């Protein structure tokens, strides 16, 4: 049961935009870790074993970014090892790992956003700008569509070659990408012609099945001050973390951290609350 995905679209956009802004701006490993755990638990709850593939990708990204930053950025006082005249430090490695976790957390939140937000919700939220809403919704729809098409192109190429790659991986990838671009251009033309033939009117009145409920209002009323307080704490240097020349927490606002924990775990909390209420109601009956 994914109650969070059934909330009002306005709250969804407010929540995810706020989360994106906080993850990018706070840049504190304690906050990043909480946000990462929050979205990972939510993904595992909704997708089950499929979410483990995201965890594997996260580990690869964190290790790659951490090692890359340590190899090419040399700062800090805690030297891990020396090769020639080059010192590789703990501070550079830790900063890279934090960058990797930030990137992985953003990817997971974007995945949750794309899964809970469809084209109908986008058009509803941006109904004051129908052309922009249409463009945004089409882009969101094209991403999974083109991903599936690229897999079909790869399978077709393997089938034509008897299940073996005759060219190098780079050349094969370029050929597949060229075919995908050709398909996307042709698909765009067909979509445009279809909309013209059906006399698409962006100013036409549309029926909306979304109705804001008291629970949505409560969540919006709670989320807005939560986002504002954490951003205020960041701007006023209350949650500053130092990565060089040594690693230490310069300042830490526990209130902001507790609020951020609640905000990161909000999707899971909403789902668990719904399940508990449903079980209580079922037990009474």
Explain what the structure shows.
By secondary structure, this protein is mainly alpha-helical. It folds into two domains: 192 residues, no CATH class; 78 residues, no CATH class. 72% of the residues lie in helices and 5% in strands. The chain contains ten helices and four strands. Strands 1-2 form a two-stranded antiparallel ribbon. Helix 3 packs antiparallel against helix 4. The longest helix is centred in the middle third of the chain and has 31 residues. The model has no long low-confidence stretch (mean pLDDT 81).
Keywords:
single chain, 285 residues, mainly alpha, 2 domains, 5% strand
Structure summary:
The protein is mainly alpha-helical. The protein has ten helices and four strands; from the N terminus they run H-H-H-E-E-H-H-H-H-H-E-E-H-H. A hairpin with a 5-residue loop joins strand 3 and strand 4.
Briefly note the structural class of the backbone. mainly alpha
The amount of beta strand, in percent, is under 5%
Q: Give the total of domains.
A: 2
First-last Cα distance:
20 Å
Strand order in the largest sheet = 1-2
Report the helical percentage: over 70%
Q: Helices and strands in order, then pairings?
A:
Layout: H1 9-26, H2 29-47, H3 51-72, E1 79-83, E2 86-89, H4 90-116, H5 119-125, H6 130-160, H7 169-197, H8 214-235, E3 241-242, E4 248-249, H9 254-264, H10 266-284
Antiparallel strand pairs: 1-2, 3-4
Helix pairs in contact: 1-4, 1-8, 2-3, 2-4, 2-9, 3-4, 5-6, 6-7, 8-9
């Amino acid at each position: 049961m994914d109650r969070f995905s059934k909330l009002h679209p306005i709250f969804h956009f407010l929540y995810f935009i706020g989360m994106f802004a906080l993850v990018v701006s706070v840049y504190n490993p304690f906050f990043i870790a909480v946000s990462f755990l929050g979205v990972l638990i939510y993904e595992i709850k909704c997708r089950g074993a499929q979410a483990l593939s995201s965890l594997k990708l996260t580990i690869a990204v964190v290790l790659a970014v951490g090692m890359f930053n340590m190899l090419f950025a040399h700062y800090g006082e805690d030297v891990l090892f020396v090769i020639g005249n080059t010192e590789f430090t703990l501070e550079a490695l830790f900063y890279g790992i934090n960058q990797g976790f930030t990137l992985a957390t953003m990817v997971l939140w974007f995945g949750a956003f794309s899964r809970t937000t469809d084209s109908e919700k986008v058009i509803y939220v941006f109904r004051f700008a129908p052309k922009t809403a249409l463009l945004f919704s089409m882009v969101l729809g094209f991403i999974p569509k083109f991903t599936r098409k690229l897999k079909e192109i790869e399978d077709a190429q393997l089938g034509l070659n008897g299940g073996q790659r005759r060219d190098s991986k780079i050349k094969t990838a370029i050929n597949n990408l060229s075919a995908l671009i050709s398909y996307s251009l042709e698909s765009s033309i067909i979509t445009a012609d279809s909309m013209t033939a059906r006399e698409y009117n962006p100013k036409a009145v549309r029926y909306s099945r979304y109705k804001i409920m008291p629970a949505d209002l409560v969540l919006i009323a709670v989320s807005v001050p939560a986002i504002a307080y954490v951003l205020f704490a960041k701007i006023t240097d209350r949650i500053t973390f130092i990565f060089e020349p040594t690693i230490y927490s310069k300042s830490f606002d526990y209130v902001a951290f507790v609020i951020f924990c609640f905000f990161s775990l909000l999707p899971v909390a909403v789902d668990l609350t719904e399940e508990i209420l449903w079980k209580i109601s079922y037990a009474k009956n």
